Amino acid sequence: MKRISVIFEKPYSVVLQSETLNKPSANEVLVKTKFSAISPGSEMLVYRGEFPAQLQVDAAIKALSEPFRYPLKYGYISVGEVVAVGSAANKEWQGRPVFCFHPHESHYAAPLNELIPVPEDIDLMEALFLPNMETAVNFMMDGRPVIGERAVIFGQGIVGLLTAALLAQFPLDKLVTLDRHAIRRQASLDVGAHDSLDPDNATQVSNLAGLLDTDAAAGLADLVYELSGNPQALDQAIRIAGFGGRVVIGSWYGTKQANLDLGGQFHRNRIRLIGSQVSTIPPEFSGRWTKNRRLDTAWEMIRKVRPAQFITHQYPVCRANQAFELLDKNPAEAIQVVFTYDE
User: Fold this and answer.
1) Which structural domains are found in the chain, ordered by start?
2) Which residue has the higher pLDDT, 26 or 64?
3) What are phi and psi of 338, to 5 degrees?
4) In the predicted model, is pLDDT for residue 103 greater than 60?
5) Rg of the chain's alpha carbons, rounded to an integer?
6) For residues 148 and 222, is the Cβ–Cβ distance under 8 A?
7) What is the pLDDT of residues 6-59, one digit of tens each?
8) Which of 30, 53, 319, 321 has the maximal Cβ count within 10 Å?
9) 3-state secondary structure the chain
10) Residue partners of 267: CB distance under 8 A and separation at least 6
């Protein structure tokens, strides 16, 4: 059997590779991919060559356990159907729709413990958002929003939008988001943000404290999320945090450096910087929460938010390079880009 794989060949170059795929081993199943989605944060770092070469691609995902180096298979959002079952695998998996943290490939063999069954009531397009929704759930666990708080999110890419959608369900006093692209600011308002600003508009940014409260002196945020992928935004996030405020850093900057001004209000205001990463359960929850419990919560949030509304583009996988060029050169046009696979 032949499979098609998306290969990051070198910076700014994505190619397709056809290769022979062996039948699944006794304890594996064969999955035919229906859709896969681009994660525009981490995948654009790989596309542009901005990844830290000394790290594993993702130590928590077997298919991504090798160090970063070109040529590279990357991606971790794939849904499909089990089309063959190994001799020792559970035959009940035949025909089952599944999610897998796997690169962009038309077919792949995997052991059952790497697959997540898609609930019967969730469409495969909605299921594509499982990893980013789990990340947004993890942000809630790390940030711990409190009733009546004022929250700010820098960055309204897909993870930022899902985070906004979850925060909008809390009884917050105010939820303000920032993003450079109008299409994302409108989507943010649609999911429940009270205001959405352009961080490049100096007037809007200078009015941010006033938007948080009519008393500008008290109008600083309790909870701030930096999800833009732009290290400069972290300085802005720190400046808008009030006394004892929490800044959750969910961005992965790769090789980009964050130059922070920590000599001002950061020190005197006792601001807390919280690193958030979805590969693990936050330590304070690890005695009660498991990966499966968090995934169950993410599925439930998918049912509530219906994130397929954020899909702006679908490309056949043979046009993968065009999809990445869109995100690199015209990000203002896109939110979520999805690959489709021929029957």
Assistant:
1) 2-118+306-340 (3.90.180.10), 138-283 (3.40.50.720)
2) 26
3) -125, 140
4) yes
5) 21
6) no
7) 999 999 999 999 999 888 899 999 999 999 999 988 898 899 988 776 555 555
8) 30
9) CEEEEEEEEECCEEEEEEEECCCCCCCEEEEEEEEEECCCCHHHHHHHCCCCCCCECCCCCHHHCCECCCCECCCCCEEEEEEEECCCCCHHHCCCEEEECCCCECEEEEEHHHEEECCCCCCHHHHCCHHHHHHHHHHHHHHCCCCCCEEEEECCCHHHHHHHHHHCCCCCCEEEEECCCHHHHHHHHHCCCCEEECCCCHHHHHCHHHHHCCCHHHCCEEEEEECCCCHHHHHHHHHHEEEEEEEEECCCCCCCCCCCCCCCHHHHCCCEEEECCCCCCCHHHCCCCCHHHHHHHHHHHHHHHCHHHHEEEEEEHHHHHHHHHHHHHCHHHCCEEEEECCC
10) none
Burial profile 241-253: b = 16 or more Cβ within 10 angstroms, e = fewer: bbeebbbbbbbeb
CB 325 within 8 A of CB 309: no
Compute the distance between CA of residue 120 and CA of residue 101 in angstroms, rounded to an integer: 19
Which of 41-45, 115-119, 127-131, 327-331 is predicted with the least confidence, judged by mean pLDDT? 41-45
For helices 130-143 and 158-167, angle between their N-to-C axes, nearest 10 degrees: 50
Residue 94: how many other CB atoms lie within 10 Å: 13
Nearest-angstrom CA–CA distance, 242 and 288: 31
CB 42 within 8 A of CB 252: yes
- Give me the residue label for tokens 């063999």: 109
CA distance 238 to 261: 9
Q: How many residues are listed for the chain in this entry?
A: 343
Residue 253 above 90 pLDDT?
no
Structure-token pair, residue 127: 């299921």
Nearest Cα residue to 292 out of 143, 113, 109? 113
